[in-house]
Amino acid sequence: MNTKTRRQDPMLAQSRRLQVLDAASDCFRRRGYHGAGMAEISKTAGMSPGHIYNYFDSKDAIIDAIIERDMEEMFSVFNGFLQAEGPLLDVMLDGCEDGVDKHLDIEKAALKLEMISEAARNDKVALSLQATDVEARRLMKQLLRRDGSLVCDLPDVELDSRVSVMFALFGGLMIRRVLNPQLDRDTVLIALKPVIRTLLTPF
Amino acid sequence: MNTKTRRQDPMLAQSRRLQVLDAASDCFRRRGYHGAGMAEISKTAGMSPGHIYNYFDSKDAIIDAIIERDMEEMFSVFNGFLQAEGPLLDVMLDGCEDGVDKHLDIEKAALKLEMISEAARNDKVALSLQATDVEARRLMKQLLRRDGSLVCDLPDVELDSRVSVMFALFGGLMIRRVLNPQLDRDTVLIALKPVIRTLLTPF
Questions:
Q1: pLDDT at A6
Q2: Do B109 and B178 meet the contact criterion of CB atoms below 8 Å apart?
Q3: CATH topology for B59-199?
Q4: Do the Cβ atoms of A197 and B199 come closer than 8 Å?
Q5: pLDDT classification of B181: cutoffs 50, 70, 90
Q6: Helix (H, G, I), strand (E, B) or coil at B58
Q7: Contact at 8 Å (CB) between A74 and A136?
Q8: Residue A144: CB atoms within 10 Å
Q9: pLDDT tens digits, B130-172
Q10: How far apart are CA A64 and CA B41, in angstroms?
Q11: For chain A, which residues make up each domain, given as ranges?
């Protein structure tokens, strides 16, 4: 992957890598991807720049690792849904609250929005995020096709649309959080749950 | 407002102001708000920096004017809805296609996402965007309360939720456009229209 290998206790190396990712996330959020230099990231991480280069070749390698970490988190959520028993609609309605909380988290939202903005002008970041999105849509469609889903027999284009609208909705909550800081999850859930019901039921 | 006044043909002054806003929009999109300097904006606009300062004091004044122009465009859309005859549901379903097209426009999306990212770390930009959002939510609620709306009698918190979810959905389409460039409006509309129907009907 995007990391250099070196002889070191693997647990310690992993913990140092995470330390760099957390520091870089913080810097990207506060200063923007372009505004945050390796010097500031190393200062925030409490490590020397040389030390950071043992783990990551460049800022691009760091953002790739942040995207990868994000993707792993998302995959574990999808896998939870795939393995949950009972009708998909119930499983997803139960999962809504967590999903809303995650997308209304201001620190996560600010970092994700910064990465998406950067993707609009940086092809490398765009390709990484788009590859993750392909995989997320694939998993979501797999979920809609599973036993216990009311929409499992619908044509592909209908499922593509439902997935896109669902992702737009949750992604858009990150924007809501910035533009309407008073918005709380309970208010969102009143209308969000009926919308999820619509998306998981034949029209 | 944020512009200097000077003795000049008002039509010409207005046209010069728009020329600066277009150039600045382009620069903010390509380089990010922080990355774009007044020198680059003036070069893109084909005007000297001194000439630009006749119209705008600072980059902040330019972004305020961009937000204001955005707001005027949005208000004209809302006013169109407010004045349209017939049941609100039909009016809004008819308006969906335009709304999807606008939010899937990559240039507009990239600029808006950059401003929202910037808002997450820049209080002045945040305050301007949030003030616009307050007004947009007020107008949308006014629309949901008008004659011919099926949800006109619902409690305030229900309308707040419906407005927030609707805004999240359209805002999120800008993110979709960046993460899934192949997404087309017809695919989006398949599931988007039933969702709008849900949001404009009592649950």
A1: 53
A2: yes
A3: Tetracycline Repressor; domain 2 (1.10.357)
A4: no
A5: very high
A6: coil
A7: yes
A8: 22
A9: 999 999 999 999 999 998 899 999 999 999 999 999 999 999 9
A10: 31
A11: 1-56, 59-199
B196 contacts on A by Cβ (under 8 Å): none
Q: Name the one residue in this structure whose structure tokens are 């330019």.
A: B62
Side chain identity at B33, as an amino acid letter?
Y
CATH superfamily, with its number, for domain A1-56: Homeodomain-like (1.10.10.60)
Nearest beta carbon to residue B183 from set A29, A118, A164: A164
Please tell me if residue B137 touches chain A, with a CB cutoff of 8 Å: yes
> Model ipTM?
0.93
Question: Is the pLDDT reported for residue B1 higher than 80?
Answer: no
Q: How far apart are CA B121 and CA A103, in angstroms?
A: 17
pLDDT at site A25: 96
Dig out the tokens for B101 from the structure.
Answer: 């097209």
How far, in Å, CA of B192 to CA of B140, rounded?
18
pTM: 0.93
Assess A64–B contact: CB distance below 8 Å, yes or no: no
Interface of B with A in 114-133 (CB under 8 A): 114, 116-121, 126, 129-130, 133
